[in-house]
Specification:
This protein is mainly α. It contains eight helices and three strands; from the N terminus they run ααβββαααααα. Helix 1 packs across helix 5 and helix 3 crosses helix 5. Pfam families: Peptidase_M78.
């Protein structure tokens, strides 16, 4: 988690924000809205141009999570696509990258929340407010508790 936290903190240097939409704009990552059916979203990168395709029918909070998740893939998993195609049958390999992108999104959204509000809410309500999907609950609670343990360090980094 420390590596992901450091990656999120370095993003603040780009535009002094943790907002995934502003970060995408600063990093020249275009977000395109489509009817994707059951797909929440996905990213593509070609010749160093990254695009995020986002399901236009999702709730606003869920869209924010999906953008943060796909931004995580773009920043953490450069060059993975050709390798990923070789291992499509290895679900453990794929789930590692999905879990890493989920945790990145959770950290980014928690940092954005703590940097923009003084409200203290419980983890269940915060998970709902941040649009964290139910399948990420255990990961969210673990990340939330770890960030609470390092709250003083976190406060200094968020300034």
């Amino acid at each position: 988690m420390e590596r992901l936290f450091e990656k999120v903190i370095t993003l603040k240097r780009y535009d002094r924000t943790f907002d995934p939409y502003i970060l995408c704009a600063t990093l020249d990552i275009e977000i395109l809205y489509f009817d994707l059916g059951d797909i929440l979203g996905f990213k593509t990168t070609y010749c160093d141009v990254s695009l995020i395709y986002l399901n236009q029918h999702l709730a606003t909070t869920t869209q924010r999570f999906v953008v943060a998740h796909e931004l995580g893939h773009i920043l953490l998993h450069k060059g993975i696509r050709p390798l990923l195609l070789q291992y499509m049958n290895h679900s453990r390999f794929i789930s590692h990258f999905e879990a890493e992108a989920d945790r990145f999104a959770i950290i980014l959204l928690l940092c954005h929340y703590y940097a923009t509000t003084d409200l203290e809410v419980g983890p269940d309500k915060l998970m709902y407010e941040l649009g964290i999907p139910e399948h990420c609950k255990a990961l969210f609670l673990d990340t939330f508790s770890q960030m609470q343990l390092h709250q003083q360090h976190l406060a200094q980094l968020l300034l």
